Predict the structure.
Amino acid sequence: MPTIRRLPETLVNRIAAGEVVERPAAALKELVENAIDAGATRIAVKLVEGGLGSLEVTDDGCGMTPDEMALALERHATSKLPDEAIEQVATLGFRGEALPSIASVSRFTLESRPRASQQAWRKVVDHGAIVADEPAALPLGTRVRVEQVFAKVPARRKFLRTPRSEYAACLDVVRRLAMARPDIGFMLEHGERRILALQPDEAIADRVAQVVARELKTNGVAIDLERPGEAGPIRLSGIAGLPTYNRGIADHQYLFVNGRPVKDRLLTGAVRGAYADMLARDRHAVLALFLDLPPEEVDVNVHPAKTEVRFRDANAVRGFIVSGLRQALASGDRRSAQTPDRGAMARWTSEPGQGDARNEPSPALTSIFSGRDWSAPSRSVAEAGAAWRGATSDVMAEPRGRAEEAAPLSEEEQDYPLGIARGQVANTYIVAEAKDGLVLVDQHAAHERLVLERLRAAGAEDAVSRSQALLMPDVVELDETACDRLEDAADGLARYGLVIERFGPSAMLVRAVPHSLKQGDPEKLLRDIDDDLVKHGEALLLGEKIDLVLATMACHGSVRAGRIMRVDEMNALLREMERTPRSGQCNHGRPTWVKLSMEDVEKLFGRK
């Protein structure tokens, strides 16, 4: 029988480093979090080769004395837990493992000077062995340099990625922490380049826009909601992008709990649920959400890297996020992402093709004026203002849209955000004149959203989701753990019309399915729902299937592209869009209207 023995300290530290220091970005996260917890107002980060060469974090925080520095390099030593009430922890770090773990797998230099001291101190640790302990010159604060990561652990070094990939991971870490603390100034340098220079005391919306994308500020809605709770209020703040401003991957969703950046399945599932009927399944929202709740309502001690949390009342938190997001989007849901496609806009101002050296025009770039007879009209026109009527039909093409005479907008009409319809282009797009610009509306996409909202308001969702009892209940055999998950979710699924019950240790009995899904396969449905429970912690899939049925009904019942509409019908559509929730985007996340300001119109014609 093998003999039980104590592991040497160096090996213990390397094992801990395997949990904490997966790559340079993980070490950077721990160091920046320490700087934040030290009360820093400015934090500077320097990277060489994406952190593979070296990384350095400098802050102007409280600093440490030489004795405190020695203690900080020991395992499970921390200043962030004054007592044993770990459920009340309010700092980002608290385990006391970061510094000794990093120092055990790198050349680690720690320099610090507390506010009450005139002398700084330096400690250098080379892969777990102290090689320098001496005075140093440093302003108030702390500087940490990490070099030669895993240089003496080749088995770990070979699993690191390229400098470009490691740099991308480090940049993501700094971005998330910079958004979490807009009161702190951040600077990030990579080699000789300055990547970020963020000033302290910025508004959350300004900081998020600088870090994520500047256009998010104009294509997003602010969120600031609060709900009372038993232990204290729960607050949701941040900025959420309009559904029409979306991405193909979910890498621009930033979630924070009590100022801590997290990647939590429940929160990402709540975001997906909030945007369920406003985005296509392969598109993802862009947002930054900050959830603040009493410390005893959330457990942050569930992951070594502190990237996951556990909520005491997960369903209440998820419901608050979904309703809060939908409420915020309802305040800006009639808007549409107003960042026109640059290629499309460039074609407004493109010059006609000049042809080749023989002055033969290229077929793809032939000017609309080429081949015209530029001689005088065949008959003279004497009356004033009738010159265009004297033009022959080959000069003036027949108009493709219809419009009424463009009378000036009345005072009442000037207040309409989407303006007054002036005509229709290609039997698909409504052209409207607003007080501040030109509006183009996709008639099918707009009416599709309107019909969906009417169906919901009329209770069609309840009608679609009512149960269809099965003549013979289906027995679906699953793993015991899957049956446990489905049994716990049975009450929630019954609200959608899916009635199930436990049938032995590893089987579920399906007694009824939603009426709209009566042709489906109960076994496949239950397996898909279980996969959704595993991934998101709550069954979202069935609700999305119901939404898909409603959206399909709305699509088939809406005005089709290619239908000729009267001007009064166009105006009725515009007015209903102005008072209907989420009318700025169709059921698939595409914009229903776009606007070209009068200033842009004048630029197109060289007036400005």
